Amino acid sequence: NAGVTQTPKFQVLKTGQSMTLQCAQDMNHEYMSWYRQDPGMGLRLIHYSVGAGITDQGEVPNGYNVSRSTTEDFPLRLLSAAPSQTSVYFCASSPTSGASPLHFGNGTRLTVT
Amino acid sequence: GDSVTQMEGPVTLSEEAFLTINCTYTATGYPSLFWYVQYPGEGLQLLLKATKADDKGSNKGFEATYRKETTSFHLEKGSVQVSDSAVYFCALSSPNTGNQFYFGTGTSLTVIP
Fold first, then answer.
1. Strands (DSSP E) along chain B, which ranges?
2. Do residues A13 and A111 touch, judged by C-beta distance below 8 A?
């Protein structure tokens, strides 16, 4: 009964480094998304996918890439980390977008120095 | 565009006090409305939802009624417990905006014995 699994839980990067945040779900959900959570700003959508092979940008996509080669996995890539990308990142999925509620992972806390 | 506004926190209550967290929304069409709860170090969990006007969502003693005339979805609980201490997020999803989720900034609740 894993649900949405995110790895790693914590990560520290230096400015300019790249890395990939992993997200996997075992519920056969078509819709997957990435959010960042910053104090006083709630959750902001970075990228989302409505199915394998389909991705689209959200509210704050700059500096991030995604791909969706399988239904289960939706990795988020930071191309060249910046201190402004210090945040908590959440992956979420649902059977379809819309009235179906999102299921969230436990988050990755990223610090960029 | 679509948006959610919820009351600023933090909120501190004594055990058994009455809780209200205000949430209003702006959306075209007929959005679905949600309350999520986030416990420390965890991802967001669905607390309750309502998908049409006058619907009441309820769970674990919490309630919220979808009021289209006042564009509101206030969260209430008659008697809070220490275990209710968490951050609460109001959210909407609207078919008019591709069924994307929009979150409020969150309200931190601390319940003291």
1. 3-6, 11-14, 19-21, 23-26, 32-38, 44-50, 56-59, 62-65, 75-77, 86-93, 101-103, 107-112
2. yes
CA B62 to the chain's CA centroid: 10
- The yes-or-no verdict on residue A1 having pLDDT over 70 is no
Look at B104 and A41 and tell me if their CB atoms are within 8 Å: no
- Token couple for B61: 């003693």
Question: Tokens at residue B34, please?
Answer: 């949600």
Q: What is the pLDDT of residue A74?
A: 98
What residues of chain B, 37 to 56, have a C-beta less than 8 Å from chain A?
A: 41-46, 49, 51
A106:B43 CB<8 A: yes
Please tell me the distance from the alpha carbon of residue B91 to that of residue A109, in angstroms, as a whole number.
22
pLDDT for res A96: 75
Comparing A100 with A96, the larger pLDDT belongs to: A100
Which structure tokens are listed for A34?
């990435």
Inter-chain touch A4–B89, beta carbons under 8 Å:
no
CA of B40: which chain A residue's CA is closest? A106
Rg (CA), chain A: 13
Q: Report whether the peptide linkage leading into residue B40 is cis, meaning its omega lies within 30 degrees of zero.
A: no
Please tell me which residue, A1 or B34, carries the higher pLDDT value: B34
The residues near B91 (Cβ < 8 Å, ≥ 6 apart) are B4, B33, B34, B35, B36, B101, B102, B103, B104
